[in-house]
Amino acid sequence: MAHKPVIVFPERFRAQLEAALPDSVEARCFSSLEECLALAPQAEIGWFDDWASGAFFKGPPAAVNAKWINTLGVGLDVFNLDQMRDRGQVLTSGNGLMPDIVADYAVLGALTLAKRLDQVVRAHDRREWPGPPGTFEMLGARALVIGYGQIGGEIGTRLRAFGTQVTGVRRTAGGDPDIIGPDAWRARLGEFDFVILAAPNTSETRAMIGADELAAMKKGVRLINIARGDLIDQDALIAALESGQVGSAFLDVTTPEPLPPEHPLWRAPNILITMHLSGQSQTTSFQRGIGRFLRNLEHYLAGEPLEHVVDLSRGY
């Protein structure tokens, strides 16, 4: 009897995924964390993207026999990458799956801070008719996008459409004068009206924005984070917002998540926290993800290299 790889995935995926699977694999679905943990050791291929049950966090460590683990996520800080490397596992991620969607949300953040839409909404809730709380213009503004990969590049494209000058930071600067390397951006922080974080969460980027970096920014700078909360020293950000050094902040990500109601970040002035919604502000990610997974499954069954494989040493 021919070997049939076992694929373990959430029950809620069944309707859209199972019918597209070839007969050469066996599907086993879970609808609770208990079922996930029972099935995970049976998986040769595991897809545990079920946040509500906790399977997203606890499924991969339990998949001791898996050769390939898939996720639609881009941030990989919840995965034990060292453990996966020791097991010889392959991890494929959602990197590049929806850069347009996340970029749209980042630019929403920039426009919100430019025109202070957050204050407009609060005035609406109070049934007040104030003057414009924000009059900053995007035309001629300067933005630094730290992490100029697929998402960062899409952010740059959108900002330029508003007449904003964009400088991107990525690992290799290349010959483009608007792209700088990882050693150059700190010295130039004072040039920018917007600083936008789109970098992966790695040992190199963790707490990359601290008290020194915030102090070096242009006074009144608008800070946007759609990457990971760990990239910012939140205590330093609170102090910079309270002093006015940072004019406003749009945070889609925080540490921890969910952010507890008593956390001081909620009470910082001129801040808008949006509960990690950038990747959820769409309806097509799962359809895109299924298409990518099925293409990779064809590669897997044919013994070919998979696409969008995570470098477990670098963490992205």
Task: Note down, in words, how this protein is organized.
The protein has helices spanning 14-17, 33-39, 55-62, 81-87, 99-115, 117-125, 150-161, 211-216, 234-243, 285-301; strands spanning 6-10, 26-30, 45-47, 68-70, 90-92, 142-146, 165-169, 179-180, 194-197, 221-225, 246-251, 271-273. The chain has 316 residues and is of the alpha/beta class. It folds into two domains: 6-97 and 284-301, Rossmann fold (3-Layer(aba) Sandwich), CATH 3.40.50.720; 99-280, NAD(P)-binding Rossmann-like Domain (Rossmann fold, 3-Layer(aba) Sandwich), CATH 3.40.50. The strands form two sheets. The chain has a seven-stranded parallel β-sheet with strand order 8-7-6-9-10-11-12. α8 (211-216) links the parallel β9 (194-197) and β10. The chain is elongated, with a radius of gyration of 21 Å. The two termini are 38 Å apart. The model has no long low-confidence stretch (mean pLDDT 95).
- End-to-end distance: 38 Å
- Number of separate strands: 12
Helical amount: 25-40%
Determine the CATH topology of the largest domain. Answer: Rossmann fold
Structural class computed from helices and strand pairing: alpha/beta
Name the strands of the widest sheet in spatial order: 8-7-6-9-10-11-12
* Major β-sheet profile: 7 strands, parallel
**Second-tier CATH architecture of the largest domain:** 3-Layer(aba) Sandwich
Q: What is the string of SSEs from the N terminus onward?
A: EHEHEHEHEHHEHEEEHEHEEH
Number of domains: 2
CATH superfamily of the largest domain: NAD(P)-binding Rossmann-like Domain
Q: Which CATH class of the largest domain?
A: Alpha Beta
Low-confidence stretches at least 5 residues in length (pLDDT < 50)?
Answer: none
- Helix run count: 10
Average pLDDT? 95
